[in-house]
Amino acid sequence: MQAWHVHENGEPSEVMRLEQAEPPTPGEGQVLLRVRAANINFPDALLCRGQYQVRPPLPFTPGVEICGETEDGRRVIANPALPHGGFAEYAVADSAALLPAPDALDDAEAAALHIGYQTGWFGLHRRAALQAGETLLVHAAAGGVGSAAVQLGKAAGATVIGVVGGSAKAAVAKDLGCDVVIDRRSEDVVAAVKEATGGRGADVIYDPVGGEAYTQSAKTVAFEGRIVVVGFAGGTIPSPALNHALVKNYSILGLHWGLYNTKNPKLVRRCHEELTDLAARGAIKPLVSERVPLGEAAAAVQRVADGLTTGRIAVVMEESA
């Protein structure tokens, strides 16, 4: 089979090599999957750089989210078990964690439903208890994680404010359903949020960026609001001023979706059932902006690493293209 291997840490375009390899052998409790499509996530870039919280032994194959096919022909979505990730013709995954791919979505869309949408569902509903009629602010609203939160927020009946960088991404966020779009490159985010909310601020803020975005979040969160800390794609981990949270009466909520797989797998399955229902009703649909062949995976991961993409890029195998 063909598989991308990382032999040393560095930038994805420099360290990912497409090589011939034997299909991986499943371990106890694992299953071999033929990869139909693999979604590219920012953690794939961090894995290449050696900066992710999980550091598989070298060499490894990145690709943490796939739509695959079991040997008995079932179409499933899964998180491959590293070091045998999804940027290959075959991957392995824990059999107990396989989820049925929604019929309403094609392979690339199904591959993109898992991490981003589960993160959004747990962040908005489990952690922040978003209610219909509340205002949700989403940073990086045109990105893979942000676009999922926008759709889930609209499905929940919230008014959604999307913050993006650039006019092209602003157009994408508008098409996704954002009620208000703020271009951080040309607008004062804090002033624009206060204007859009009549000075009240956002009830829930979904932040996968960190850094300056978190600073803006603390300035725009409403009384009894909730800031959901999802990640640090901006590269800077902020240090929240807890005295500010005290005097302004807001909550800072951490979200590590992966822990739910071990702490509460039944809830993960319930989340998937709800996402499948939303997809069937057309309320959510992963924004797959590009579909690339396996041979272009390294360049695509680099574009995600550099923040040059909107929505998701999916690596699609020829058999399912």
TrEMBL record:
GO terms for molecular function: oxidoreductase activity. Its EC number is 1.-.-.-. Keywords: Oxidoreductase. PROSITE patterns: QOR_ZETA_CRYSTAL. Residues 1-26 are annotated as: Disordered. Pfam families: ADH_N, ADH_zinc_N. Residues 11-315 form the Enoyl reductase (ER) domain. Residues 1-20 have a biased composition (Basic and acidic residues). This is NADPH:quinone oxidoreductase family protein.
